[in-house]
Amino acid sequence: MSTLVKDLGRVTVRRISVSDMDNNVYLITAKASGAQVLIDAADDLPAIRALLAEGAADAQGPAKLALIATTHQHWDHVRALEGLVEETGAPVAAGRQDVSGIPAPVGVVLDHGDVGTFDGFELTAVHLRGHTPGSIAYVLAEPGSAPLIFSGDSLFPGGIGNTQQDPDRFALLYGDVVERLFGAYPDESEVHPGHGKPTTLGAERPHLAEWKERGW
Predict the structure, then answer these.
(1) Residue 1, pLDDT above cutoff 90
(2) Could you tell me the pLDDT band of residue 143, with boundaries at 50, 70 and 90?
(3) Helices first, then strands: H and E counts in the chain
């Protein structure tokens, strides 16, 4: 099965699913420079190595892992992180409020709206509070293409992430998702979550009031 999700001209996006929890691991590769960003080193280091090699084949020259970006601190999204850091020496990024829960040194501390500039593309950090205090979605907005939102566990097809029936956490996450994703990006934007299949903001927008009413 092909790992290729998108070929956007300047970059490719690849994905694998790892572990029995169906964790998604995403890889962005700049074709011209070989710069790579991996989102969520969730598990299965050998599979991640293979994913990096497939992405490297998309590049015109030698590929280099420029950043390992974490969406949040939950254990199932970081099980291969320490091993990948040890092998590659790549820096780790995480939301400021989640840094203490990341099992590897965090060299890039993210706040809402921070933009990471790589050789061939940019990623915007969107802070979505509630699933964890420092959850980050990463947005890749390539010219001429619909934005890609790597939402971690904050937004899925059919609803927002788990807030453990805490009404305050739900209100925070719902508010951030509505304002910072649905209010900021067009309906054609693709949502690529931390587990399972993708969706679009347009497919989910009609259900926002329903989500708010049910409280999860």
Answers:
(1) no
(2) very high
(3) 5, 15
